[in-house]
Amino acid sequence: MTATVPVSAPRAAPVFARSTLLLCAVLAAVAASVPFWANSYVTSIVVRALIFIMLGQAWNVIAGIGGQLSLGHGVFFGIGAYGTALLFNEAGITPWIGLWIAAAAAGLCAMLIGLATMRSRGVYFALGTVVISLGFEKIARYVVDLTGGDAGLAVNYRGTAPALMQFREPSAFLWIDLAVVVAYFLFTRWLLHSRFGLRLQAVRDDEHAAAASGVNVLGVKLSGLVVSAVMTAVAGALHVQFYLSIDPGTAFGLFQAIQIQLPALIGGLGTAGGPVIGGLVATLLTEGTNYGATLLGVRGGDVLVYGVVLLGVVLYAPRGILGLFRRRAGSGA
Amino acid sequence: MIQALVSGILLGGVYGLFSVGFSLAFGVMRIVNFAHGEMVMLGMYTGFLVFTYLGLDPLLTVFVAPFLVGGIGVLAYLFIYRRYVGRTTLQQLLAAIALALILQSTAQLVFGPETQAVRSVFASQYLLLGPVFVSYAQVVAFAIAAVCVLAVEGVLRLTRWGQVVRAVADDAEAAEIVGQNAQWVNVTAFGLATGLAGLAGAVLVTYYPVNPHVGFVLMPIALIATVLGGLGSVGGAFIGGLICGVVEQLTSAYWTPALQDIPLYALLLLFLAFRPFGLFGRASAH
Q1: Per the CB < 8 Å rule, is A126 touching B224?
Q2: How many CB atoms sit inside 10 A of residue A148's CB?
Q3: Is B69 among the domain residues?
Q4: For chain A, which terminal residue's Cβ has fewer other Cβ atoms within 10 angstroms, N or C?
Q5: ipTM score of complex
């Protein structure tokens, strides 16, 4: 595996990448300071945004950088959330450790899913992940003794207990989640220029050409999926610690799997900054439509907004918000 | 056992009808229409509207729903899918999901989130065949489905248009070179594919309750039936639909209705892993 890898995706102009980095650093600093000047309601929204961004960053690894459309990320998210909660409730294992066990389980599950669906045409992976999502949701609703069924599972709450990753105030979650988002951002930046990341991009751009250049296509796709699944499971664990409950629809539902795609798509697929920018916009969008829907008393309006935004982005801005700026910067130079 | 088999086959016939449409869109244009279930849903609501507001039998909509839904399909093709013809890309799959969400939420805003049922004249009539108990509505639905699939198969094999469609499905570029306008073929084929979904919806609603999210229940079935039969194969998709119906009913009778689709999902994964070209597909294709 020492063959050189063709990279057809043009790298972003360095000037621009630097300004995105700067923007993200400013955003991180602002986010970290939120608990000092805002109330806990605003802090909670920021935590929600950070989890959304994290999920987008995780999905972006396999879908944006690797070009494989996963509709099954709800599965990894759910394994992270249910796994961490169950390990704590049933076995008393602190989420700080349970998180890693759940993440490993999600990685293993990703490996099996990938082995079953990634060997042939790309479209089969998307089709396979749809039914895996649905299957997990149905089973989670059925095994009531373990998962609590439709009603969901509540994490045993002990008040503020740092050793159990439980805090009464959302600020602690904000700092933990922010640290993970920053780590994911730096990881994605590294990945884009790493040997492994270049192989992923080569597979995305042209599987046959990549294979002809000596890339182990299945191996690269599988590793990408496993990395992405582990990242998603960590987000699931942080989600369940913050909300203290999880239910089958939130964890495994097809709609959840679709929602996970929004940050990267809106911000810019396959970039490090995209999921961050897109996650912020998507959170504002969700909060705004939820608020509007409650105000007007309509149900289902939020999904309509999602659908229209998703279609608009896919048809008219396939490279997301960052892509729009990049095109303009490119044509101006 | 026989009861589950018979009702499985009857339900499976209708599954087969919309799966044929799903398979056709993939075979000719390489379009995976994740919004196919929503096309069935629109057909079901057409029957619901005709029943509720005109007081007519929902089954009469079999003459309207295919054209209505086919028309919506043509619009979807022209405005969305046209740019993705020939290669299934991430963008195409996402666009289809977005369309599904838009149709679903619009239906929810218009018709409300409730599950609603209609009553065809056949709904309360039952037929006793030895130990087997079947409703007329299901028999009529199956008969319509079977006739339509045979008709589609016949049109594809015997007419000039059908030959062109099959030629484009085999090799769009070569068909273009010998003077067949692929764009026109694509529009009509996509209209037919979605029209079949609308038709399936119109017959399905006579005994299967409708809600705005029914598309996400039916789309996986179309997908599984299509993969079982071989992506792109019309007859294969129909057989795949029958298999789905039978497996569902058997699981529901002998295990639990709550998990009636789980064996189907497992079956799909087995096929993806070991026989991705399906029962009737060609191993060499693509």
Answers
A1: no
A2: 19
A3: yes
A4: C
A5: 0.85
